[in-house]
Specification:
9 helices, single chain, 227 residues, 13% strand, Rossmann fold, two-stranded antiparallel sheet, alpha/beta, 2 domains, six-stranded parallel β-sheet
């Protein structure tokens, strides 16, 4: 890769936004409605990046072929949608990152497996949607991460070649998708990575412990271009 960096693309849950508090609240609300004890936030948090099905499976200790699963998942999502931005915030330091790249004339966007009916209102509630160059949700194109198609679609919307893009995520599927798309990739260690996961083997260009580290990589890639 020799192109200069022009676009930053973020995974949503666990990378751009700390959505775990609202998702945990939604799961525990449904658990209590079902007469089951709530799960602790610490045990829910690592599951969040894997989506609604994984959260419900974890909470109710059931697989998705259970006859009650679909109904519980929909109730979970409905509750989450009603309270989608009650406690969700940008990760500390992320606003500074966004402002800095905007001031430098770069653009940024979101590529997530979260469906658009949740992604769009969440970004709008936090007044972020208007600032993005592109938002690609889990149902925007036919494929989902780890397929590279959503990231390549984001490139087109952002007006950048893949080699001009940096994708940041907190799940193995994010890094696999970014690498397959031909982008630079970073792992957000501050995201929802479980203690049993091994991000050092995911094949990213680097790992960052806080959002401010993104700017170090932006400077490096802007000045030198290649990996």
């Amino acid at each position: 890769m020799t192109d200069r960096l022009h676009t930053l693309l973020f995974d949503l849950d666990g990378t751009l936004l700390d959505t775990a508090p609202d998702l945990a609240d939604a799961l525990n609300a449904i658990l209590m409605e079902e007469g089951q004890p709530p799960r602790t936030y610490e045990t829910i948090r690592p599951v969040v990046s894997h989506g609604a099905a994984a959260i419900v499976s974890f909470g109710f200790d059931m697989t998705d072929d259970d006859t009650r699963f679909a109904g519980l998942r929909q109730r979970f999502l409905d509750h989450y949608r009603r309270h989608i931005a009650r406690r969700t915030r940008l990760f500390p330091g992320m606003e500074e990152v966004l402002q800095t790249i905007e001031q430098r004339g770069m653009n940024w966007g979101v590529v997530t497996n979260k469906p658009a009916w949740l992604t769009d209102p969440l970004l709008q509630a936090l007044d972020l949607y208007r600032r993005t160059r592109c938002v690609v949700s889990g149902d925007t194109v036919e494929q989902r991460k780890p397929h590279p198609a959503p990231l390549l679609h984001a490139c087109n919307l952002a007006g950048s070649a893949a080699g001009q893009c940096l994708y940041i995520g907190d799940a193995q599927r994010d890094i696999e998708a970014g690498n397959r798309a031909g982008m630079h990739t970073l792992i957000a260690l501050f995201g929802y990575i479980g203690s049993d996961e091994t991000p050092e083997y995911w094949g990213a260009d680097g790992m960052i412990s806080n959002p401010h580290d993104i700017l170090v990589w932006v400077d490096r890639l802007t000045n030198h271009g290649a990996r």
